[in-house]
Every structure is written in C-alpha cells, then in structure tokens.
Amino acid sequence: MNFNSKTEKRCHYASLALFGFFGQVAWCVENSFLNLYVYRTITTDLGIVSAMVASSAVVATLTTIIMGWVTDRIGKRRPFMVYGYLLWGISVAAFALCSIQNMQTLFNLDRAAAVTAAAVGMVVVDCIMTFFGSTANDAAFNAWVTDTTDSTNRGKTEAFLSILASAAYVVVFLPFEAFGITANKYYDASGAQVTSPVDGGTTVTGNWLLFYLLIGGLVLASAVAGFFILKDAPDLKPQRNMPFKELFYGFRPSVIKRNKYLYLVFLTLAIEMMANNCFFNYLIIYLENTMRCADYLWGGYLIPMGLIYGLGMAAGLIVGIILDKRNDKAKFILPGICVAVVGAVGMYFCSPQFMPVGQTTLWLFCVAALIQATGHSIVTVVCLATIRNLTPAGKVGRFQGIRMVFYVALPMALGSIVSGVVSSSDKYITGYDEFGHAVYTCPPVIFLLTAIVSVFAIIPTVFLLKAPQGALLKPAPDEEAYLCKDVQE
C-alpha cells in the first residue's frame, strides 16, 4: 500500500497495532481465560470447555463467511471494525453475569441446577461475543490487513501480529494472575489455607467481575480510538451487484481446483492448528493442576508460559523477516512441522506420568514446549502469509470465511473435542469437592495427541513443495484473468 503522507503511514501502523493487539486481548479471554474461569468457578469437567470451544468455533466461522461477503459487497471494512470492537468489548464484560451465585439469585436454583445454568450461560454469551469478535476481527480486520499489505511485507506483518498475541497474554494474565486477583484460594476441612483443592475443602474464587469489566473496557476503548485513525484501503470498491450466491464462492469445486495451492496451504494450516488445539486450550489448567506450579514457583504457570510463548513468537518473527526475502516459502513448512512434533513428544515425556513433580520436570517441559511453539510459529507464519498472497484480489472478504473454516472451526472443534473426550475419562478423576462433584486432572496424553496429529500436516506439505517457482507468491493466473473479465463486463 502506498501512503500519501507520513501521517497516513503512521495512522496505518497505529491501526494495525491497535486493532491487532486489542483483538488478541479479547481472543485471549475467549481462548484461554474463559476455560480457566469455567474450571475454577463453575465445573472441572473439561467436556464443558470442549463444548464451549466447539460452539464458538462454529459461530465464528459462519459469522466470518457471512460478514466477509457483506464487507466485500459494501466495499468497507472500517465501520465493521470500529462498531464491531465496540460491541465486542461490551460482550466481554457480560461474562461477569455467568456465575453460579448469580444463577442461584436470579432464578432461585439449587447449586446443581445453578452449575448447569452457569455453564449454559457461558456457552451462550461466548457465542454472542464470538459473533461480534468474528465480524470485527476475523472478517473485517483480517481482510483489511490483506487489503493494505503485499507479498513484500506479509511475512513480517504475520509475525508482528503473532507477537501482539503473545503481548496480549502478558497484559491479560500478568496483572490478574500474578497478584492473585482472579486466582482461587483453597481451604481444607478445618479452614486452613492450602495450595490446591482437597477432599472436603472449600474454594473461594477470585474477583472475576473486575477482570471482565476492565478487559471489556480496553477493547471498547480501542474502538473509540479507531474512529480517529483507521482508514480503508483506497482501492477498495463496493460490489453492489454481487449476488447472494457469492457468499459460497470459496466452496465451489471450480474455485478450489483453480486455486489448488491456496487450499493445500489451508489444509496444512488446519492440521497444524488442530494439533495445537489438542492441548493449547488446556495448557494453563495442566500447568496449574497437573504440574502444580503454584506449589513451588512464584506466579505459578506465568513464568513458564512467558518463556515458552515469548521466545516461540520471537522465532516466528525471525522467520517472518526471512520469509519476505525468499520465494521458496514452502520449504520452511516441513522443518517447522518436524520441530513441532519433536517438541510435543518431549512435552508428553516431561510430565508427572514419567517424572516426579517439581522444578526439574517443569523446566524440561518448558524446553520441550519452547521447541513445539517454535515449530508451530514457523508453520503458521508461513501458511498465513502465503494465504494472503494467494487470496484472489476483489474477493478478500469472501475468503476470510474459508480461512476461518481451516484456521478456527475445524481445528478448534476437532482438536478440543478429541482432547476433551480423552481428558473427561473417569480414570482422570482425582477427588471430589465439598459438594460431591468430581475434580478432574488434565492428563499428559494431550501432548501425544498433538504430535500424532501434526505428522499428518506433512501430506499436503509434500504437494506444496512440488509447486512451480513463484506459484505461492500471487493468486492463480486463471483467477486473475477471471477477475479482469468481470471488470470489463
């Protein structure tokens, strides 16, 4: 994108950073903190977490398909981003209503019924939040990024957005978890405070109302700032005559055939993301309850999480910078998959199933997790940048829905369900709380599942390695000719 002035350039990069960062703040809540909130305050049954993850993935995909088509037809991304983030922030704050105590008070329920109502409420509010978030971020913001970048800077852009995701986790987790604002406090049957749940003991939950109001407020504030600095790409034009059937443009067999390399990259990304989702949604629960970090490490899981994903994303940034200077981008994918598989296998063996709980096991686990995160970052940065290169011009919004199918819906639904079913087995019950409800642990087998699924990503990668030189740098030639014909008509 060419800028007419330094001010315009600064506004562009400020918009990229602002909407990229606060979008990741909101998704951090959706992808990790909601799971933690449910586990700590409502139920330890990981099947509920899986249901929440899967349902939001479906909503996110359908929303992006529809709203991506709408942004293409109207020829604007800005209003969907600004107003979408505004409503997104409000919906984040609404999670504060979904608590067992509120359900008992509002509907006069006993505790067992209130647990069910709170769990259902979380799923419903999560879907509402996801609708606004996917409209604003997945459909509008991601299309805007493609509109305003090209093959010379998309690697760096994807890496930068990945770093913003890590920064968002630091901003969300550090102040609330390190200082115990959202942490639980546990007491045994005699009333003495202990570090983890015990049979017959009680649990006092953290200040989640403050958490949801503050995070929702930050996302809302980013929308207000967007009113003043955000601009659409100058060459983005309305397509008023675009029929409703174009909503499913990316699902046509002829389109898939014409853009075969684009869909091979989609498939590679889907498999790798499914592998990552086999454990990622449960990682904090695993570190806190299975590795028992809080028993011997200040800040609990915060230090290992920061090391793992901070360094992993730094590796992704390096790859992104190198990627923009290379034409053989696909050659990075296979090594990235292999690195991710080795790391996941290491995470499985560096666990209480094979080693005693303690700092030595934890740091070995962190080394393995860093290896996995590095490999995963390499694969995702290469795939996402290549997808932007291969997305047909003039149809960017419509392809955001296809991107969501492969990047979010299939991976989150399948990956989380597989792990949730395995983790909800009765053999992983570690005890019962003061109400007689089972307390589940999170088993290391989720990392073995991750490694197994990652291996399958090699299959589409092999076909990408056989692509002609330059085939992964721009949309398929036939598609470009098709677009020219549309313009002439």
TrEMBL record:
<protein>
    <submittedName>
        <fullName>MFS transporter</fullName>
    </submittedName>
</protein>
<feature type="transmembrane region" description="Helical">
    <location>
        <begin position="159"/>
        <end position="176"/>
    </location>
</feature>
<keyword id="KW-1003">Cell membrane</keyword>
<feature type="domain" description="Major facilitator superfamily (MFS) profile">
    <location>
        <begin position="1"/>
        <end position="469"/>
    </location>
</feature>
<keyword id="KW-1133">Transmembrane helix</keyword>
<feature type="transmembrane region" description="Helical">
    <location>
        <begin position="361"/>
        <end position="384"/>
    </location>
</feature>
<keyword id="KW-0813">Transport</keyword>
<dbReference type="GO" id="GO:0022857">
    <property type="term" value="F:transmembrane transporter activity"/>
</dbReference>
<feature type="transmembrane region" description="Helical">
    <location>
        <begin position="332"/>
        <end position="349"/>
    </location>
</feature>
<keyword id="KW-0812">Transmembrane</keyword>
<feature type="transmembrane region" description="Helical">
    <location>
        <begin position="82"/>
        <end position="100"/>
    </location>
</feature>
<dbReference type="Pfam" id="PF07690">
    <property type="entry name" value="MFS_1"/>
</dbReference>
<feature type="transmembrane region" description="Helical">
    <location>
        <begin position="112"/>
        <end position="132"/>
    </location>
</feature>
<dbReference type="InterPro" id="IPR036259">
    <property type="entry name" value="MFS_trans_sf"/>
</dbReference>
<feature type="transmembrane region" description="Helical">
    <location>
        <begin position="209"/>
        <end position="230"/>
    </location>
</feature>
<keyword id="KW-0472">Membrane</keyword>
<dbReference type="InterPro" id="IPR020846">
    <property type="entry name" value="MFS_dom"/>
</dbReference>
<feature type="transmembrane region" description="Helical">
    <location>
        <begin position="445"/>
        <end position="465"/>
    </location>
</feature>
<feature type="transmembrane region" description="Helical">
    <location>
        <begin position="12"/>
        <end position="34"/>
    </location>
</feature>
<dbReference type="InterPro" id="IPR050171">
    <property type="entry name" value="MFS_Transporters"/>
</dbReference>
<feature type="transmembrane region" description="Helical">
    <location>
        <begin position="296"/>
        <end position="323"/>
    </location>
</feature>
<feature type="transmembrane region" description="Helical">
    <location>
        <begin position="261"/>
        <end position="284"/>
    </location>
</feature>
<dbReference type="GO" id="GO:0005886">
    <property type="term" value="C:plasma membrane"/>
</dbReference>
<feature type="transmembrane region" description="Helical">
    <location>
        <begin position="46"/>
        <end position="70"/>
    </location>
</feature>
<dbReference type="InterPro" id="IPR011701">
    <property type="entry name" value="MFS"/>
</dbReference>
<feature type="transmembrane region" description="Helical">
    <location>
        <begin position="405"/>
        <end position="425"/>
    </location>
</feature>
